[in-house]
Structure to design on (235 residues):
């Protein structure tokens, strides 16, 4: 609900606001590559920590609500059969229906579309692009305001999810949940200091300067991870 409008609006504003066509091409390519590399690193870090510390150990899996994992089974079959190749991954960046990608939350196609839209918008005359650019600026600022509003009440929702978990599984379920929450914070701190520290060094910035620049985005990411913890506890 929040991430997709923020990603689209901020990318369009950032790219369309540059103006220089050569810079725009470099920014667009770097944006897609950065997202791909950072996402891969995040997945590796998450899988490593989860397999090493096993935060869900001790939970009776037979009592948990079952969910549909057919989409993951399909991906596994593609990888095993070799059909999930580099070419298919690159082609998957191009959305056949951008609205379907938005509905499913497929970030790479959304980023690809946003970059192209920003490039197209930047090529328009100033008097034509300014009204639409102002709309995207307003959407971006509005969605960040909405995020801050939701964050005020997020602890209440998380408390409710944890309360349901305790009611269903007893106080013994709090230990695996506490391990999960602690592990998430460890992963976030590691990512912020090590991964973003490396990015800051590459950009010749101090890490705290980069964190201040990305403050709103980091808060948004932490907010979604906190809700994810609560949902994991519930399901």
């Amino acid at each position: 609900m929040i991430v997709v409008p923020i990603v689209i609006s901020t990318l369009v504003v950032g790219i369309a606001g540059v103006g220089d066509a050569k810079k725009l091409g470099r920014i667009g390519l770097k944006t897609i590559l950065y997202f791909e590399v950072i996402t891969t690193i995040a997945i590796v870090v998450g899988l490593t920590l989860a397999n090493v510390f096993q935060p869900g150990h001790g939970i009776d899996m037979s009592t948990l609500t079952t969910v549909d994992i057919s989409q993951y089974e399909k991906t596994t079959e593609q990888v095993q059969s070799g059909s999930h190749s580099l070419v298919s991954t690159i082609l998957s960046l191009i959305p056949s229906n951008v609205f379907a990608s938005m509905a499913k939350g497929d970030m790479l196609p959304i980023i690809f579309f946003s970059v192209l839209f920003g490039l197209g918008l930047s090529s328009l005359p100033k008097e034509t692009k300014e009204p639409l650019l102002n709309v995207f600026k307003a959407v971006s600022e509005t969605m960040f305001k909405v995020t801050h509003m939701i964050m005020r009440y997020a602890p209440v929702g998380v408390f409710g999810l944890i309360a349901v978990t305790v009611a269903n599984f007893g106080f013994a379920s709090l230990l695996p949940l506490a391990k999960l929450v602690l592990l998430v914070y460890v992963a976030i701190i590691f990512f912020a200091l090590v991964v973003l520290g490396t990015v800051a060094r590459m950009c010749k910035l101090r890490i705290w300067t980069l964190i201040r620049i990305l403050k709103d985005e980091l808060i948004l990411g932490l907010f979604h991870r906190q809700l994810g913890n609560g949902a994991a506890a519930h399901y």
In short: Residues 3-234 form one domain. Confidence is low (pLDDT under 50) at residues 226-235.
